[in-house]
Amino acid sequence: MSVPSALLKDFDTLSETIGHPNRSQAVSEAMREFLSNKKWDVTRKGKVPGVILLTYDHHAGGIGQALTKMQHDHPDVVTATMHIHLSKHVCLEIIAFNGDAGRVRSLARVFRSQKGVLDLKLVTSPL
User: Fold this and answer.
1) Would you kindly state where each structural domain of the chain is located, as residue ranges?
2) Which fold, 45-124?
3) 40: alpha, beta or left, given left = phi > 0 and alpha = psi -120 to 50?
């Protein structure tokens, strides 16, 4: 596995701070959390409510227009949005959704693939 050195340094520092005795234990915990958080992506069916938290570089070419278009292309899923300026270059988009799990997965994948997207978190809620 190949990891950028800055990411590895931050990971090691945080894992030591919270008391992991070694990197292997921290990686195992991170993998379990990843699996737990992403498992719904494969198994959940039916209608699902929640939010997508999306941070992006506002100066990446055309990103704002692309995000707006994607939201308008999913009117059966997207119910509301909020735009927050975090810094001169970084914005947070909070996209509320309530719709078919497959359509939500599709929307999240399309968002993730956009140049300029820095991070995406998908948070679902039980009905």
Assistant:
1) 5-38, 45-124
2) Alpha-Beta Plaits (3.30.70)
3) alpha
